Amino acid sequence: MRKLETVVLIYDDKCSLCRGCMKWIELHAIRSNAFEFIPCRSEERRRRFPEMSEETCLESFQLVLFHKQILAGDKALPEIVIRLKGFRWLYVLFQFPVSRNCLCTAYRWVSNNRYIISQTIKPLIQE
């Protein structure tokens, strides 16, 4: 198995669904430093990744690999799941075109509707 370096996950911190996903990822990470989380609108993101526009990082989360390669949204999913305890087996699903396409389509739907989903589930979480 390849060595997994720490990656930077840039997310929309104004979206409660996105914040919840980051907390879930942090909780299930294979080690405490598997991910570094940076809000899209933060000064730190602008300073460290000036080439990344705010518009780009608000479209979908951005995963910055150790060699500065940036994977956006569904392209980053395999790199995320391989860093999660108990969910690494999902990595295999990304090797098959049919399952990869289904997972990526589901991600894009959730990403495109995340504010609606956030508003829908927020009352359920608060009860």
Spell out the key features of this protein.
globular; single chain; alpha+beta
Structure description:
This protein is of the alpha+beta class and 127 residues long. It has one domain (7-126). It has six helices and four strands. The protein has helices at 16-28, 43-48, 54-59, 77-81, 97-112, 114-126, and strands at 7-11, 35-39, 62-64, 70-72. Strands 2-1-3-4 form a four-stranded mixed sheet. The radius of gyration is 15 Å and the shape is globular. One of its GO terms (molecular function) is protein-disulfide reductase activity. This is Thiol-disulfide oxidoreductase. InterPro entries: DCC1-like.
Outline the fold blueprint.
Layout: E1 7-11, H1 16-28, E2 35-39, H2 43-48, H3 54-59, E3 62-64, E4 70-72, H4 77-81, H5 97-112, H6 114-126
Parallel strand pairs: 1-2
Antiparallel strand pairs: 1-3, 3-4
Secondary-structure-based class equals alpha+beta
> Mind describing the biggest β-sheet?
4 strands, mixed
Helix segment tally: 6
Number of DSSP strands?
4
Strand content: 5-15%
SSE run:
EHEHHEEHHH
Distance between the termini: 43 Å
Rg to the nearest angstrom?
15 Å
